Amino acid sequence: MEKILGILGGMGPMATADLFTKITAMTKASCDNDHLRVLIDSNAKIPDRTNAILYGGESPLPYMLDSALRLESMGAQCLIMPCNTAHFYINELQKAVAVPFINMIEETAKAVPEGCRPALLATSGTIKTGLYSNALKKRGFDLIVPDESHHMLYMAAIHDIKGGRVPDRGSFLMLLKWLKQKGADTFILGCTEIPLAFQWLEIDEPYVDATMVLARSAITFCGKEIRE
């Protein structure tokens, strides 16, 4: 039996739209009626997760709890969040609802090909909390992350995308080149804005798109097949 999917979104809105687009495009369907029922709460007022985790800013958790409970009350039978950093709070969120959360971090870690050397493209909050490094260490991977100066190039790209702007291609390629020199042969797109950067800048490098992994996991969990 198909499940109703709930998306706890707004972190940010462009990433939420990208996830819903991928779910729709990847679902094996021959007509409208073959698609999943999807409930989306895109609350762009949720406070910044990295600012809260690292610098004592306003906690996003009450806002996220409100969204999760709203989605559950509307009939969602499974919840997902298109924000990697927000998974710092996933245990508290899961305790508050009776329906399951699909963990984006864990699903992405399982999708990293064996034998590769992955580099993580993610926010400061995601990197410093060890969300990906812990999940990947369990699977035998030694994660490569940008140093402080190259991470600034990454964060500039994120802020551009959140502002609706195309990131600077030269700066972004400089970041990827540095990571490859450190031994990376695969990039984990561990922030939900980064798949858009790869798309807009036409980056041709091996990667694991966490948003796409989450979309695939949600489709199959809710009882649909993947369009190959």
The structural domain count equals: 2
Q: For the terminal residues, how far apart are their CA atoms?
A: 22 Å
> What value does the average pLDDT take?
94
Identify the strand order in the major beta sheet.
2-1-3
The radius of gyration is 17 Å
As a percent range, the share of helical residues equals: 40-55%
Oligomer: single chain
CATH architecture of the largest domain: 3-Layer(aba) Sandwich
Shape: globular
- Counting DSSP E segments of at least 2 residues, the number of strands comes to 6
Figure out the total of helices: 11
Low-confidence stretches: none
Percent in strands: 5-15%
What is the makeup of the main sheet?
A: 3 strands, parallel
Order of SSEs, N→C?
EHEHHEHHEHHHHEHEH
Q: Given this structure, which CATH class of the largest domain is correct? A: Alpha Beta
What is the CATH topology classification name of the largest domain? Rossmann fold
- Helix and strand content put the structural class at mainly alpha
